[in-house]
Amino acid sequence: MSFAPQFFTTAESLVGSLDRxxxxxxxxxxxxxxxxxxxxxxxxxxxxxxxxxxYVGDAYGDxxxxxxxxxxxxxVLLGEIDEDIEDALPLRQLPIQDILEMQREEAEEKARRxxxxxxxxxxxxxxxxxxxxxxx
Length: 136
Description:
2 helices, single chain, 35% strand, six-stranded mixed sheet, SH3 type barrels
């Protein structure tokens, strides 16, 4: 008798990730890396030795966060980090001050492009009336 693979979609499926290094992407876009120490039935997570990693282009910077508690409803993506592959990635680590400055410049450039795009759409007759919270 053959059984199809079972995929768990509950918090119970996290049992195999305990004491492993994970990357957690949050709803607000932040990326947290840490060792999963505990979780509950709502997929609330406790990460130890965690850091927030900020990516800009091919560079990144880390902010130490220590013990980090994440409410389950804020988790968008969660996955185990393969440290061999992580070390081989063509990314360069920069001081966090440099990354934050690059992130600010990137956000300003995006805002400038978005403003230009909205102006062009408005000239073509499209409605561009929406608030920042209208998009997910």
